[in-house]
Amino acid sequence: MPTHPGVGMLPFFVHPYQLLPCDSPFVCVIIRVKRLVYGETSVTRAKEPSQPRVTFYTKAGCHLCDEARDMLDDIAAQSDFELTEVDIRSNPKLFEEYRYRIPVIIINDDTILEGRIDFSNLAKAFQLP
Questions:
Q1: Of the residues 10, 16, 27, 101, which has the maximum number of CB atoms within 10 A of its CB?
Q2: pLDDT tens, position by position, 37-78
Q3: What is the side-by-side strand order in the sheet with 82-87?
Q4: Which fold has domain 23-125?
């Protein structure tokens, strides 16, 4: 099994799950992906460049974030989009701005869903029936 140099001898899975290299103990994420693009403080799951851009602000141990992530996985089965997941603990400014609001989902820089997210509202934001 291949390894990633930034992770040492830990396995670097190619499919269906990827183990991402960690520069910070708060940015370690395992995510199911089709194609992976690495960012400075985020993980990007890219499908098609012309699809909606979704930024998901989260942190480990947030049960509402886990529920929102599951909803995003359900939406991903119906709609293509580019997802950037950002752990707010990776940046003090992000932590200060979002710590009482997470999970926060921003679609194309303007649609914002936060806190306890309802699946029907999320589906409407993606213009799904």
A1: 27
A2: 333 444 555 544 578 999 999 999 999 999 999 999 999 999
A3: 36-38, 42-45, 82-87, 53-58, 104-107, 111-114
A4: Glutaredoxin (3.40.30)
